[in-house]
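Quick one:
INPUT:
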Protein backbone atom coordinates (compact mmCIF):
# COMPACT_ATOMS: atom_id res chain seq x y z
CA UNK A 1 0.00 0.00 0.00
CA UNK A 2 2.86 2.38 0.77
CA UNK A 3 4.31 1.75 -2.68
CA UNK A 4 1.00 2.45 -4.39
CA UNK A 5 0.46 5.61 -2.38
CA UNK A 6 3.96 6.91 -3.07
CA UNK A 7 3.38 6.36 -6.78
CA UNK A 8 0.12 8.29 -6.77
CA UNK A 9 0.59 11.15 -4.32
CA UNK A 10 3.37 12.98 -6.22
CA UNK A 11 1.37 12.69 -9.41
CA UNK A 12 -1.76 13.91 -7.69
CA UNK A 13 0.09 16.96 -6.45
CA UNK A 14 0.58 18.05 -10.03
CA UNK A 15 -3.10 17.75 -10.91
CA UNK A 16 -5.07 20.64 -12.28
CA UNK A 17 -8.79 20.87 -11.73
CA UNK A 18 -10.81 20.78 -14.88
CA UNK A 19 -14.15 21.70 -13.37
CA UNK A 20 -13.42 23.13 -9.94
CA UNK A 21 -10.63 24.86 -8.05
CA UNK A 22 -9.48 25.28 -4.49
CA UNK A 23 -8.12 23.13 -1.72
CA UNK A 24 -10.86 20.51 -2.11
CA UNK A 25 -9.63 19.61 -5.59
CA UNK A 26 -5.91 19.70 -4.78
CA UNK A 27 -5.83 15.94 -4.12
CA UNK A 28 -8.17 13.06 -4.95
CA UNK A 29 -10.16 12.11 -1.82
CA UNK A 30 -8.73 8.60 -1.63
CA UNK A 31 -5.38 10.15 -0.69
CA UNK A 32 -6.82 11.38 2.61
CA UNK A 33 -7.93 7.91 3.66
CA UNK A 34 -4.85 6.02 2.46
CA UNK A 35 -2.50 8.52 4.07
CA UNK A 36 -4.41 8.26 7.34
CA UNK A 37 -4.32 4.45 7.10
CA UNK A 38 -0.53 4.55 7.05
CA UNK A 39 -0.42 6.70 10.18
CA UNK A 40 -3.19 5.08 12.24
CA UNK A 41 -1.10 2.12 13.40
CA UNK A 42 1.54 4.51 14.79
CA UNK A 43 -0.87 6.45 17.00
CA UNK A 44 -2.70 5.64 20.17
CA UNK A 45 -5.96 3.79 19.77
CA UNK A 46 -8.13 6.83 20.43
CA UNK A 47 -6.08 9.18 18.26
CA UNK A 48 -5.82 6.64 15.43
CA UNK A 49 -9.55 6.02 15.26
CA UNK A 50 -10.25 9.74 15.52
CA UNK A 51 -7.94 10.36 12.57
CA UNK A 52 -9.73 7.65 10.60
CA UNK A 53 -13.12 9.23 11.25
CA UNK A 54 -11.81 12.64 10.19
CA UNK A 55 -10.32 11.21 6.97
CA UNK A 56 -13.50 9.41 5.95
CA UNK A 57 -15.65 12.42 6.81
CA UNK A 58 -13.32 14.44 4.59
CA UNK A 59 -14.33 12.15 1.71
CA UNK A 60 -17.96 12.85 2.57
CA UNK A 61 -17.34 16.59 2.66
CA UNK A 62 -15.45 16.64 -0.64
CA UNK A 63 -18.15 14.56 -2.30
CA UNK A 64 -20.78 17.05 -1.20
CA UNK A 65 -18.82 20.21 -1.99
CA UNK A 66 -16.92 19.57 -5.22
CA UNK A 67 -18.95 20.54 -8.30
CA UNK A 68 -19.94 17.98 -10.90
CA UNK A 69 -17.61 17.99 -13.87
CA UNK A 70 -14.43 18.27 -11.82
CA UNK A 71 -11.78 16.37 -13.72
CA UNK A 72 -8.18 16.01 -12.57
CA UNK A 73 -5.87 14.56 -15.25
CA UNK A 74 -2.53 12.97 -14.38
CA UNK A 75 0.08 10.73 -15.96
CA UNK A 76 -0.06 7.29 -14.35
CA UNK A 77 2.60 4.73 -15.38
CA UNK A 78 3.21 6.74 -18.55
CA UNK A 79 -0.47 6.96 -19.56
CA UNK A 80 -2.97 9.78 -19.35
CA UNK A 81 -5.34 9.01 -16.48
CA UNK A 82 -7.90 10.76 -14.28
CA UNK A 83 -7.73 10.00 -10.57
CA UNK A 84 -10.67 12.24 -9.70
CA UNK A 85 -13.70 12.51 -11.97
CA UNK A 86 -16.94 13.80 -10.44
CA UNK A 87 -20.37 13.09 -11.86
CA UNK A 88 -23.75 12.40 -10.28
CA UNK A 89 -23.13 8.69 -9.75
CA UNK A 90 -19.58 8.98 -8.42
CA UNK A 91 -20.71 11.77 -6.09
CA UNK A 92 -23.47 9.54 -4.68
CA UNK A 93 -21.09 6.62 -4.17
CA UNK A 94 -18.49 8.93 -2.62
CA UNK A 95 -21.05 10.18 -0.11
CA UNK A 96 -22.01 6.59 0.74
CA UNK A 97 -18.43 5.42 1.18
CA UNK A 98 -17.50 8.47 3.24
CA UNK A 99 -20.47 8.11 5.58
CA UNK A 100 -20.33 4.31 5.93
CA UNK A 101 -16.56 4.47 6.39
CA UNK A 102 -16.87 6.91 9.28
CA UNK A 103 -19.58 4.79 10.91
CA UNK A 104 -17.49 1.62 10.45
CA UNK A 105 -14.45 3.19 12.11
CA UNK A 106 -16.60 4.43 14.98
CA UNK A 107 -17.94 0.88 15.40
CA UNK A 108 -14.38 -0.44 15.21
CA UNK A 109 -13.43 1.78 18.13
CA UNK A 110 -16.51 0.76 20.11
CA UNK A 111 -15.79 -2.94 19.53
CA UNK A 112 -12.22 -2.66 20.85
CA UNK A 113 -10.62 -3.37 17.47
CA UNK A 114 -6.93 -2.54 17.39
CA UNK A 115 -5.33 0.08 15.18
CA UNK A 116 -3.84 -2.38 12.68
CA UNK A 117 -7.24 -3.84 11.87
CA UNK A 118 -8.64 -0.34 11.47
CA UNK A 119 -5.75 0.59 9.19
CA UNK A 120 -6.52 -2.38 6.92
CA UNK A 121 -10.19 -1.40 6.87
CA UNK A 122 -9.30 2.19 6.00
CA UNK A 123 -7.02 1.05 3.19
CA UNK A 124 -9.95 -0.88 1.74
CA UNK A 125 -12.19 2.19 2.00
CA UNK A 126 -9.50 4.33 0.38
CA UNK A 127 -9.01 2.04 -2.60
CA UNK A 128 -12.79 1.79 -2.99
CA UNK A 129 -13.03 5.58 -3.12
CA UNK A 130 -10.29 5.56 -5.74
CA UNK A 131 -12.34 3.17 -7.87
CA UNK A 132 -15.48 5.26 -7.38
CA UNK A 133 -13.87 8.46 -8.66
CA UNK A 134 -11.80 6.83 -11.42
CA UNK A 135 -12.05 8.82 -14.62
CA UNK A 136 -10.61 6.19 -16.96
CA UNK A 137 -10.56 2.41 -17.18
CA UNK A 138 -6.87 2.07 -16.27
CA UNK A 139 -7.44 3.85 -12.96
CA UNK A 140 -10.59 1.82 -12.36
CA UNK A 141 -8.83 -1.52 -12.89
CA UNK A 142 -5.83 -0.38 -10.84
CA UNK A 143 -7.95 0.47 -7.80
CA UNK A 144 -10.18 -2.56 -8.35
CA UNK A 145 -7.17 -4.83 -7.96
CA UNK A 146 -5.96 -2.84 -4.95
CA UNK A 147 -9.38 -3.41 -3.40
CA UNK A 148 -8.78 -7.16 -3.72
CA UNK A 149 -5.41 -6.83 -1.96
CA UNK A 150 -6.57 -4.61 0.88
CA UNK A 151 -9.80 -6.51 1.56
CA UNK A 152 -7.95 -9.85 1.57
CA UNK A 153 -5.39 -8.43 4.00
CA UNK A 154 -8.23 -7.27 6.24
CA UNK A 155 -9.77 -10.76 6.30
CA UNK A 156 -6.41 -12.48 6.80
CA UNK A 157 -5.62 -10.30 9.78
CA UNK A 158 -7.97 -12.42 11.88
CA UNK A 159 -5.86 -15.51 11.16
CA UNK A 160 -7.01 -19.10 11.59
CA UNK A 161 -9.95 -20.11 9.43
CA UNK A 162 -10.17 -16.56 8.10
CA UNK A 163 -7.13 -17.29 5.93
CA UNK A 164 -9.06 -19.83 3.87
CA UNK A 165 -12.03 -17.47 3.65
CA UNK A 166 -9.66 -14.73 2.52
CA UNK A 167 -8.35 -16.94 -0.28
CA UNK A 168 -11.89 -17.59 -1.50
CA UNK A 169 -12.65 -13.88 -1.33
CA UNK A 170 -9.48 -13.02 -3.27
CA UNK A 171 -10.40 -15.61 -5.91
CA UNK A 172 -13.89 -14.19 -6.37
CA UNK A 173 -12.54 -10.64 -6.48
CA UNK A 174 -10.01 -11.74 -9.09
CA UNK A 175 -12.79 -13.26 -11.18
CA UNK A 176 -14.67 -9.97 -10.93
CA UNK A 177 -11.61 -8.07 -12.12
CA UNK A 178 -11.18 -10.48 -15.02
CA UNK A 179 -14.80 -9.93 -16.03
CA UNK A 180 -14.26 -6.17 -15.95
CA UNK A 181 -11.22 -6.54 -18.20
CA UNK A 182 -13.14 -8.90 -20.48
CA UNK A 183 -15.72 -6.17 -21.05
CA UNK A 184 -13.30 -3.23 -21.19
CA UNK A 185 -10.42 -4.65 -23.24
CA UNK A 186 -12.36 -5.19 -26.51
CA UNK A 187 -13.76 -1.65 -26.39
CA UNK A 188 -10.38 -0.14 -25.50
CA UNK A 189 -8.73 -2.03 -28.35
CA UNK A 190 -11.44 -1.04 -30.81
CA UNK A 191 -11.23 2.62 -29.84
CA UNK A 192 -7.45 2.52 -30.19
CA UNK A 193 -7.75 1.05 -33.69
CA UNK A 194 -10.42 3.61 -34.58
CA UNK A 195 -8.27 6.61 -33.66
CA UNK A 196 -4.74 5.29 -33.96
CA UNK A 197 -3.88 6.78 -30.56
CA UNK A 198 -3.03 4.73 -27.47
CA UNK A 199 -4.59 7.36 -25.23
CA UNK A 200 -7.96 6.83 -26.92
CA UNK A 201 -8.03 3.34 -25.46
CA UNK A 202 -8.41 4.96 -22.06
CA UNK A 203 -11.26 7.29 -23.06
CA UNK A 204 -13.62 6.66 -20.16
CA UNK A 205 -16.57 8.33 -21.89
CA UNK A 206 -16.48 6.02 -24.90
CA UNK A 207 -15.70 3.00 -22.74
CA UNK A 208 -18.55 3.63 -20.34
CA UNK A 209 -20.97 4.13 -23.23
CA UNK A 210 -19.98 1.07 -25.26
CA UNK A 211 -19.22 -1.37 -22.43
CA UNK A 212 -22.82 -1.06 -21.25
CA UNK A 213 -24.20 -1.36 -24.79
CA UNK A 214 -26.23 -4.54 -25.20
CA UNK A 215 -24.67 -5.42 -28.56
CA UNK A 216 -21.16 -5.12 -27.14
CA UNK A 217 -22.05 -7.19 -24.09
CA UNK A 218 -23.48 -9.92 -26.30
CA UNK A 219 -20.30 -9.88 -28.40
CA UNK A 220 -18.17 -10.23 -25.27
CA UNK A 221 -20.36 -13.13 -24.14
CA UNK A 222 -20.04 -14.88 -27.51
CA UNK A 223 -16.27 -14.42 -27.44
CA UNK A 224 -16.18 -15.85 -23.93
CA UNK A 225 -18.13 -18.91 -25.07
CA UNK A 226 -15.74 -19.42 -28.00
CA UNK A 227 -12.81 -19.20 -25.60
CA UNK A 228 -14.38 -21.82 -23.32
CA UNK A 229 -14.99 -24.12 -26.29
CA UNK A 230 -11.38 -23.62 -27.36
CA UNK A 231 -10.17 -24.70 -23.92
CA UNK A 232 -12.34 -27.82 -23.99
CA UNK A 233 -11.33 -28.79 -27.53
CA UNK A 234 -7.65 -28.16 -26.83
CA UNK A 235 -7.74 -30.40 -23.76
CA UNK A 236 -9.51 -33.19 -25.66
CA UNK A 237 -7.11 -32.99 -28.61
CA UNK A 238 -4.16 -33.04 -26.26
CA UNK A 239 -4.73 -36.73 -25.47
CA UNK A 240 -3.32 -37.78 -28.86
CA UNK A 241 -0.15 -36.79 -30.67
CA UNK A 242 -1.99 -35.77 -33.83
CA UNK A 243 -4.50 -33.80 -31.81
CA UNK A 244 -1.72 -32.13 -29.83
CA UNK A 245 -0.10 -30.99 -33.08
CA UNK A 246 -3.44 -29.63 -34.26
CA UNK A 247 -4.00 -27.52 -31.14
CA UNK A 248 -2.04 -24.44 -32.39
CA UNK A 249 -4.08 -24.34 -35.60
CA UNK A 250 -7.36 -24.74 -33.74
CA UNK A 251 -6.28 -22.02 -31.30
CA UNK A 252 -5.42 -19.69 -34.18
CA UNK A 253 -8.84 -20.15 -35.77
CA UNK A 254 -10.63 -19.69 -32.45
CA UNK A 255 -8.64 -16.58 -31.52
CA UNK A 256 -9.31 -15.12 -34.96
CA UNK A 257 -13.01 -15.73 -34.41
CA UNK A 258 -12.83 -14.03 -31.01
CA UNK A 259 -11.19 -10.92 -32.43
CA UNK A 260 -13.71 -10.84 -35.28
CA UNK A 261 -16.59 -11.04 -32.79
CA UNK A 262 -15.02 -8.25 -30.75
CA UNK A 263 -14.50 -6.02 -33.79
CA UNK A 264 -17.96 -6.62 -35.21
CA UNK A 265 -19.56 -6.02 -31.82
CA UNK A 266 -17.59 -2.81 -31.35
CA UNK A 267 -18.58 -1.53 -34.79
CA UNK A 268 -22.28 -2.29 -34.26
CA UNK A 269 -22.29 -0.84 -30.74
CA UNK A 270 -20.46 2.30 -31.89
CA UNK A 271 -22.95 2.82 -34.71
CA UNK A 272 -25.87 2.32 -32.33
CA UNK A 273 -24.53 4.88 -29.86
CA UNK A 274 -23.01 7.49 -32.18
CA UNK A 275 -25.01 7.05 -35.39
CA UNK A 276 -22.11 6.14 -37.66
CA UNK A 277 -19.76 3.26 -38.28
CA UNK A 278 -16.28 3.65 -36.79
CA UNK A 279 -13.55 4.27 -39.35
CA UNK A 280 -9.85 3.59 -38.92
CA UNK A 281 -7.32 6.38 -39.55
CA UNK A 282 -5.46 6.60 -42.85
CA UNK A 283 -3.29 3.61 -43.56
CA UNK A 284 0.48 3.61 -44.15
CA UNK A 285 1.92 5.52 -47.06
CA UNK A 286 2.39 3.77 -50.39
CA UNK A 287 5.90 3.36 -51.85
CA UNK A 288 7.27 6.58 -53.24
CA UNK A 289 5.23 8.81 -50.91
CA UNK A 290 6.63 10.64 -47.90
CA UNK A 291 5.24 13.12 -45.40
CA UNK A 292 6.31 16.71 -45.98
CA UNK A 293 7.28 19.23 -43.33
CA UNK A 294 3.76 20.65 -43.32
CA UNK A 295 2.26 17.19 -42.76
CA UNK A 296 1.10 16.74 -46.36
CA UNK A 297 2.01 13.80 -48.58
CA UNK A 298 4.82 14.35 -51.07
CA UNK A 299 5.39 12.06 -54.05
CA UNK A 300 8.96 10.81 -54.35
CA UNK A 301 10.69 7.58 -55.30
CA UNK A 302 11.76 5.73 -58.41
CA UNK A 303 10.13 6.20 -61.84
CA UNK A 304 8.64 2.71 -61.52
CA UNK A 305 7.02 3.57 -58.20
CA UNK A 306 5.76 6.85 -59.66
CA UNK A 307 4.21 4.94 -62.57
CA UNK A 308 2.47 2.58 -60.15
CA UNK A 309 0.97 5.53 -58.32
CA UNK A 310 -0.27 7.15 -61.53
CA UNK A 311 -1.76 3.87 -62.78
CA UNK A 312 -3.74 3.44 -59.57
CA UNK A 313 -5.24 6.93 -59.75
CA UNK A 314 -7.03 6.82 -63.10
CA UNK A 315 -10.46 7.20 -61.54
CA UNK A 316 -9.44 9.61 -58.80
CA UNK A 317 -8.33 13.18 -58.53
CA UNK A 318 -4.61 13.42 -59.09
CA UNK A 319 -2.69 14.14 -55.92
CA UNK A 320 -5.49 13.20 -53.52
CA UNK A 321 -4.75 11.53 -50.22
CA UNK A 322 -6.62 8.41 -51.34
CA UNK A 323 -4.09 7.91 -54.15
CA UNK A 324 -1.17 8.11 -51.80
CA UNK A 325 -2.22 5.77 -49.01
CA UNK A 326 -3.11 2.12 -48.81
CA UNK A 327 -6.75 1.38 -48.14
Amino acid sequence: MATALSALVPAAGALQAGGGTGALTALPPFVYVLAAALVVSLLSRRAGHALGIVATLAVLGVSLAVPAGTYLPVRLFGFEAALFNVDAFSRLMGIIFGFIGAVAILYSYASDADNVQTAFAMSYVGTSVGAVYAGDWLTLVFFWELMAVTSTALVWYYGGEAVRAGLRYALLHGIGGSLVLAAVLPVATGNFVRTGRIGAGFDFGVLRTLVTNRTMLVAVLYAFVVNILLSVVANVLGFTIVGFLAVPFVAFVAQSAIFYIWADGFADAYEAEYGQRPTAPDGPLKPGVTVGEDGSDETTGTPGEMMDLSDNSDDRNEGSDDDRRWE
